[in-house]
Amino acid sequence: MTDTTAEIQDYYRGKAAEAAEAKSCCAPDPTRFGPGAYGDIGPGEASDAALLASLGCGNPTAVAELRDGETVLDLGSGAGLDLILSARRVGPDGQVFGLDFLEEMLAVARQNIEDAEVGNVILLKGTIEQIPLPAATVDVIISNCVINLSVDKPAVFAEMARVLAPGGRLGITDVVAEDHLTPADRAERGGVSQCIAGALSKAEYLSLLAEAGLTDAEVVFTQDAADGMHSAIIRARKPGGCC
């Protein structure tokens, strides 16, 4: 482990501790945000370093219902927790891609993946607005509280639809606003809880999924993040495929 990787892991351990003490940056219940959302992880499934680095708003690996042999893409893969869990769920015949734009974060994920001894993960450097994969490459896209941070969300949805294989699906978690909140309302709440800045409304989420050609879409609120803002499970499917 390099000194830089160790320093970043220490940083994220500190951030996780701060989130727990403050009852999370997004919500009053740390048992369902950050590491608390992964209460069903079995012994040895992931390292403490990877778990403590999780600052998301859910557990997309549980939402996506991953199966043996599938190819998975994690948008904004961070320190690698969801990559490790996905790799174990899809098994040696499956493949997991992790996409992040920070080289330093990729270094942390690389170390955590090595420590977990999983060999079916490929890390990619890039942005979620321009996914560096060919079309129809993946069966499942997961993401944990990342899409709300994008400044070009239509591009993200178009890219997700492009790289999904026919019949492929989304199983992501994100922070979503109630429809009555204006962009100004959301920006004001983001000033208090930065991890919800830029969140789409439920109607906007469903509209962008439809515009991208994704079907069977649903946005289900799971927990309050701020007044009129919620952690949510988002599912959708690309038409086609055998099932």
Automatic annotation (TrEMBL):
Pfam entry (one): Methyltransf_31
SUPFAM superfamilies: S-adenosyl-L-methionine-dependent methyltransferases
Leader sequence segment: none
Example of a GO MF term: methyltransferase activity
EC assignment: 2.1.1.137
Superkingdom, natural source: Bacteria
Record keywords, A-Z: Methyltransferase, S-adenosyl-L-methionine, Transferase
Entry coiled-coil feature ranges: none
The reaction(s) this protein catalyses: arsenic triglutathione + [thioredoxin]-dithiol + S-adenosyl-L-methionine + 2 H2O = methylarsonous acid + [thioredoxin]-disulfide + 3 glutathione + S-adenosyl-L-homocysteine + H(+); arsenic triglutathione + 3 [thioredoxin]-dithiol + 3 S-adenosyl-L-methionine = trimethylarsine + 3 [thioredoxin]-disulfide + 3 glutathione + 3 S-adenosyl-L-homocysteine + 3 H(+); arsenic triglutathione + 2 [thioredoxin]-dithiol + 2 S-adenosyl-L-methionine + H2O = dimethylarsinous acid + 2 [thioredoxin]-disulfide + 3 glutathione + 2 S-adenosyl-L-homocysteine + 2 H(+)
Biological process, per Gene Ontology: methylation
Domain Methyltransferase: 67-213
Family: Belongs to the methyltransferase superfamily. Arsenite methyltransferase family.
Protein name, per record: Arsenite methyltransferase
Organism: Amycolatopsis melonis
